[in-house]
Specification:
This protein has 313 residues and is mainly alpha-helical. The chain folds into 2 domains: 4-143, no CATH class; 176-312, no CATH class. Helices cover 58% and strands 6% of the residues. It has 10 helices and 4 strands, in the order H-H-E-E-H-H-H-E-E-H-H-H-H-H. The chain has helices spanning 8-52, 55-74, 94-98, 101-143, 157-165, 199-212, 225-230, 258-268, 274-290, 301-312; strands at residues 79-83, 89-93, 170-175, 178-181. It has a two-stranded antiparallel sheet with strand order 1-2. The protein has a two-stranded antiparallel sheet with strand order 3-4. A hairpin with a 5-residue loop joins strand 1 (79-83) and strand 2.
Amino acid sequence: MANFFNTPLSTFIRGAQTTIHEWQMMLQSLKQTVIAGLIIVAILAGWQVYNKTTAYDQYIMQRWVTAAGKAAFFGHKSTIDFKGADGKTYKLYTGKYLRSNMAKVVWRKAGAASLVGVKIGAALSSLILLFVLLFFYLNGRRQGKDFHVRGAQLGTTGDLAKALKKVGPRGTISLGGIRLPADMEPTNIAMIGAPRTGKSVQISAVLDEVRRAGQRAIVYDYGGLFTRHFYREGIDTILNPMDERSAEWRPWYDAFEPAHFEQQAASLSRRHIAPVVSGFCGYRHPQTLAQGRQSKGYARQVPETLLNAQQQK
């Protein structure tokens, strides 16, 4: 079965079906549009006839239609009742009434009025037809384009800027020259890239914008790069037991239970060194806390203990 779809015959069949289907759909669309245009022409022609003829003219045309019907079924010798302009009612032969000058004059008048309506309706219908065909074309062009179903999208910076404008008012942070909405700033933003691709440069630019806006930032500076560029003596605060400029703070100042010291020990060292750190923190630090946390050099004993424990292992 799969081989059938790759044969010249199957290719011909697919092409023929596609072409015929497209022509059928096009003719159906044009048919509906033309019918709508004819309805508009008929309505405008009837309105012109109604507007340009008197009530008596309309009565004459109505009796003429009645006479034509009777003449078709009962012959020209049949009669109809006709009320004249003087208010009297007369019996007239249908054949003579159909050929009367009075009826012909009224029908010429109605024909001239309907011709004006047809011209106006034709012009209006042509304009509507043009707009409909343009709509069909633009809609087909839009549907022929790729559309996004789900997941990430690739786009230009202009596309991204337009999408972010719909989220909300602009905030402080810019990434790649595009200002992020204020509602997105508290969310998680990941900067992923190979070494030396500009991640630190972009973060520095963000911190510059935060500082210019007079806002605060908490920076986890693993390598000290941002501390060297942004730290201001007497204004900013460093929380680093290994830095002489640090405020009086130790990681285990926030530990109050033995389990807290165990967690900090596990996070600071490998498994075979953790018991040493846990003992160091758990048995010595509470006494230091009781003495008022006065020794900054105490924190530097932790790396020495870790190093000694690793050498002994």
